[in-house]
MTOR-associated protein MEAK7 (Cyprinus carpio), 450 residues
Amino acid sequence: MGNADSVVAQKRLARFRPDERPVIEGIFDRLRGTGSSVSSAKTGRVLSLEMLKMTMGKMASESMIKRVFQGMHSIDPGVPLSPGDGIIHEQLVIFLADILRGTAEERAPLVLAMAEGAKATATTTEQIRDFMEDLVSAAVQTLAHRGHLRAWQPDRMGDEPQGVKLLAEQLTSELKSSDQNMCDIPCLEDWLFRIPAVAMFLELLIGEGLGVGLPSRPPPTLLPLCRYAPWSDLRCLLNIPLLMFLSPQLPAGHSAPWRLLFSTNIHGESFTRLVGNCKSKGQTVMLVKDTKGHIFGGFVSQSWEAKPQFQGDSRCFLFSVFPYMRVFTCTGYNDHYMYLNQGQQTLPNGLGMGGQHGYFGLWLDCDFGHGHSRARPLCTTYGSPQLSGDEDFKVDTVEVWGVGQPPEEQEQDEKKKSILDADPEVQAMLELTGKTLHSQGLREPEEDEG
């Protein structure tokens, strides 16, 4: 960019590494379909809405692309603008810098413009929710189009459009708006600072949607890896937006792979089978759908084990999926995080989380098909309300996913590591043996080998 160009744009461009700056500067001409590098301020060339649609059409709805265009158009680049409503080079550079490298203070005006319009000074929570529906939907579309679903199969999963609406509502509920449900710039700054998911969705959409390939900043990972699921037989309760919401709440976040342990539509309605499949399997996420259509569940931080006392720790939580998406973490009132018992005469037999005997936040009876969620008014352990449609509910579907490395694999890895750490000669011998087997074609090459 020459000396006559925007000082604001030059400062924004300095946020990128020297080898990345030509990439950022070249995006304007690429979107316009030309290889010319002449500055738009000198030629009057602009980027039109139709050009954006051609580039982003497979990753976002028309309404979301219009919002992105509004955000770009709202920027004051510090140089004269071309006549009409096109985007000049400097506006695009500033927009990319603020979305991909900006602060909450810099992103807030862009979010306001995308939600309400270029000249707005405030907007309503309803407008922000509509914006978030478009953004969440675009993030899901982008993951699918770019092949970042990480082995999840949306066609065998739950209601995705419903999940989009529920996640948008959940994120919008975090706004600290005025009594009139109005949001100004400070309100949006606070929201963006506290809720990183909004910036991550924007970064994914803009980075992938406009083809901004930056070596120092790969696309954000929004989903955990699905390590195992029998998709041909499964119709699971999870959907992609729900995974985008739940996995960051877990201790290991997106880095822990998920594997299916139990589903009623595969393993049947058997409490014994449920317990057998889930015991000693490490951290798990359970989802329950009742016959009234409510979907809810819980995360447990330790393996399920049958014993007469409560288990777990403060990392456990309950959550609601439908009719609203929320997470309920521990209150510190008691340590009744998780409970499992079977075949006892004096204690309740079943699986529960939170509350107390007879008044669990979530309870599945050993007589499979029945459960309860008794809050009155809130679960003492997690502060959750009644999660089911009726206090005493009938089960429609139960699904349990193991999260992270299975305990038996973790134990094997730890044993291997302890042997290698204790004896460097053994480590050298194993490496030599591995190379010999590889050279003889008796072992598959490692992933990072050419």
Summary: The first strand starts at residue 122 and ends at 124.
